[in-house]
Amino acid sequence: MLHTLVVGIGRSGRDLHLPVVHRLREGGAGGALFADSVPMGYDALPLPVLDVPAGLEIVPTLAAAAALRDPARTVVHLCTPPTARVPLLHELAALGYRRLLVEKPLGADTETVAELRRARDAYGLDVAVVGPWLHSSLTERLATLVGSGRLGALRRVTVHQRKPRLGRTLRNSSHPSAFDVEPPHSVGVALRLAGGGRVTAAEWSDATDGRRVAPRMGSAGLTLRHDSGVITTIDCDLVAPVRERSILLEFDAGTALGHYPVSGDDPYAQLRVTPLGMTAEHEIFHDQAMDACLLHAYRAFADGADLVADFELQAHVVELLEQAKRRAERGEPAGAAAGPGKDGLHAS
């Protein structure tokens, strides 16, 4: 059975990872995966007493955590910003921790990912990456639909990720850009549905309330041309007045429009499949993707499963996001590659 150590008690660790761990432990979904011990938490910044979540044992140092629970039987949830992970990974490995669950994106850039890969191999670590959309019931249905060929060949994928978080961004801009917030989810799904590819255009904007500015944190858009010929367009807006997480798949003989849950308050997804010239088929179903993602990771850790393929998919996500950032910096609009009558191709 496995203990839990959450490193980084910010929104991700406190509000996403910890509640899911408690649900899995208490609801029986994890079976004998979870030890009876209280999850531990560590943060480099002192936490006010009122900010300490219930059901979490705060430790003053990582060494103190290693003294309390056997590192060899502990899963570390690395929930720090992507720019601050490499030194922590070395420290954790030196203390004997071998199972790490890393918050998305895997790294801020490909250089960081390469350093993580070298450390993983040098210490013999098992590294899983948080990718809830890849474990979503909606994504599973879409992948099945693509694989079945029922609607013919997949031609285009369009994703809208709209999330009102201006206040949070202006209070604490811990991400380098909007590309590091929502697009890691959708790029991973695009790779699963349509295979590898490259970025052909990208753009970003600042977040501002008229007085304060968070550079590159307002919106992010990118266009992918997959090796299969499929074109994916992703539009992320972090100053939107409404929430939306939608994905549209266009096939030769129909469409599939999916909506991921926009929050944990209502964990239901929807899918509307419309074969050409036929009536749409509409489904609403339970979709707690974060629960499925963490459960999958703990099972993989317990079984000693090979996590290299998952790591490399997430590494490709970081590579594509890095390409997008370079193009956005040069001012190459994402929409230019996806207009009516265009094939979505730009020179590299």
Descriptive overview:
With 348 residues, this protein is an alpha/beta fold. Helices cover 33% and strands 27% of the residues. The chain contains nine helices and 14 strands. The protein has helices at 11-27, 62-68, 86-94, 110-123, 137-148, 166-171, 183-194, 289-303, 308-330; strands spanning 3-7, 40-42, 57-58, 74-78, 99-102, 126-129, 154-162, 197-208, 213-226, 231-237, 244-251, 254-259, 268-275, 281-286. It has an eight-stranded mixed β-sheet with strand order 8-9-10-7-11-12-13-14. A six-stranded parallel β-sheet has the order 3-2-1-4-5-6. Strand 4 (74-78), helix 3 (86-94) and strand 5 (99-102) form a beta-alpha-beta unit. It starts with a strand and ends in an 18-residue tail after the last helix. The model is unreliable at 336-348 (pLDDT under 50).
| Helix-and-strand structural type | alpha/beta
Low-confidence stretches: 336-348
User: What string gives the helices and strands in order?
Assistant: EHEEHEHEHEHEHHEEEEEEEHH
Q: Whole-Å distance between the termini?
A: 49 Å
Strand order of the largest sheet: 8-9-10-7-11-12-13-14
Mean pLDDT across all amino acids: 91
Fraction of residues in H or I helices:
25-40%
How would a textbook summarize the main sheet? Answer: 8 strands, mixed
General form: globular
Number of helices: 9
Question: What share of the residues does DSSP label as strand, in percent?
Answer: 25-35%
Give the beta-strand count: 14
Radius of gyration: 20 Å
Annotate the secondary structure layout.
Layout: E1 3-7, H1 11-27, E2 40-42, E3 57-58, H2 62-68, E4 74-78, H3 86-94, E5 99-102, H4 110-123, E6 126-129, H5 137-148, E7 154-162, H6 166-171, H7 183-194, E8 197-208, E9 213-226, E10 231-237, E11 244-251, E12 254-259, E13 268-275, E14 281-286, H8 289-303, H9 308-330
Parallel strand pairs: 1-2, 1-4, 2-3, 4-5, 5-6, 7-10
Antiparallel strand pairs: 7-11, 8-9, 9-10, 11-12, 12-13, 13-14
